[in-house]
Each structure stands twice: as C-alpha cells, then as structure tokens.
Amino acid sequence: MKLLLLSDKESPFLWDYYQPGRLKDYDLILSCGDLKAEYLSFLVTMGRAPLLYVHGNHDTRYRSAPPEGCESIEDKLYIHNGIRILGLGGSPHYSGGPHQYTEQQMARRIRRLHWKIRRAGGVDIIIAHAAPTGVECGDDYAHRGFDCFRELIDRYQPKYFIHGHVHMNYGRQIERQITIGSTTIINAYERYEVEI
C-alpha cells in the first residue's frame, strides 16, 4: 500500500503544475494539517485514494468550509484495509487558537482513545500535527511537541508516527525521518511518500 503524506505547504508539483496521473499510484492520502481545504478537495478529486486528515493549528476555516470528499479522523481510530490509523491534530497551546492544546488536554484526548486502541489490538499509524517532544521539534513554545506523544509511542509501538508543524525550511537541518524503538517518525512537510 502506497501512502502520500502531506502537511503545512501545498505542493506545486501536485497543485499548480499538476498533470493527470500523478496521484494514480497512491492507495491512501494522509494530511497532517495546515493545508487549504481546496487543496485537499482537489487531491481527493483528481486521485483515486481516500484522504484522511487531522487539523493543524491554522485550520480555522475548516469549521465553516471543510475539505470536500475528505474524512476527518480527529480523535478517532480509523481502519483502512486492515491498517489501524489514529488521528490527533492540533499543536501545543501558545496563543489560544481553536486547535491548540495544553499537555494535559492532549493527554486527556489520548486517554479517551485507549479503549478503542485496545479493542482494535493496537495502532499501526498515528497521524498528528505536532511532533513528539524532542523529535525535531522547534525551540519555541509553539513547536515544542507533546510528551504524551512519546508515551503513546512507547505504549503501543506503532509502525509509523506521522506529523507536520515543523517546517523543513525553518533554516536548520531537520531530518525527514527518524526511528524511536520500532516506530518510524516522519515529518510530512509538503509531501512525502511511504510504502507499507
């Protein structure tokens, strides 16, 4: 199964300079937030794959105009062709926006999902907007990540943890992919593909 991962910046390759057939090989598209709703609707229309998304800290327009044809998996465990995918959007709280959470609020969201995860026998992929603490996070308050994401990884050892929020062009060396235990953590900035 081939996945297209997206976050934070609309890819000119997939939108401005799109050519028919560019999305034909993808079986599933996962958006980690902060992308225009029109962009996500375009991708799900032009491709043959379903598109699942979580909110980024700037996705305030989704409330009145959500991406058409796409499915929010915010606070859900979604199963696609046997792959268990958990969605936890939003960023650390820094200015009071609608998709910002304190560490305690995010931990409470995760606790509410434990029963569903156990009933499903675990989780294979976690998509989030923010990164786990200490994993290619920024030094500023808004990009510090969540400790509870590290605990979630340690407890369930998903195959992948996919996030956005930390832009690859922030002016320092940011690794696209790192491993913690048996979990591969991927920064989905702009676009990235993975085969599982």
Quick gist of this model?
The protein is of the alpha/beta class and 196 residues long. Helices cover 19% and strands 27% of the residues.
Quaternary organisation of the protein chains:
single chain
In CATH, the architecture is: 4-Layer Sandwich
Distance between the termini: 5 Å
Category from helices, strands and their pairing = alpha/beta
Radius of gyration: 16 Å
Number of helices: 3
CATH topology-level name: Purple Acid Phosphatase, chain A, domain 2
Largest sheet: 6 strands, mixed
Name of the level-1 CATH class: Alpha Beta
| Number of separate domains | 1
Order of helices and strands: EEHEEEEEEHEHEEEE
Average pLDDT taken over every residue: 91
Number of strands: 13
DSSP strand (E) fraction? 25-35%
If strands are numbered along the chain, what order do they take across the biggest sheet?
Answer: 5-6-9-10-12-11
Low-pLDDT ranges: none
CATH homologous superfamily identity:
Metallo-dependent phosphatases
Percent in helix: 10-25%
What is the overall shape? globular
Describe the protein's architecture and organization.
The protein is of the alpha/beta class and 196 residues long. It has a single domain, classed as Metallo-dependent phosphatases (Purple Acid Phosphatase, chain A, domain 2, 4-Layer Sandwich). It contains three helices and 13 strands, in the order ββαββββββαβαββββ. The strands form three sheets. A six-stranded mixed β-sheet has the order 5-6-9-10-12-11. Strands 4-3-2-1-13 form a five-stranded mixed β-sheet, covered by helices on one side. It has a two-stranded parallel sheet with strand order 7-8. Strand 11 (177-180) and strand 12 form a beta hairpin. Helix 2 runs parallel beside helix 3. It is globular and about 45 Å long. The mean pLDDT is 91.
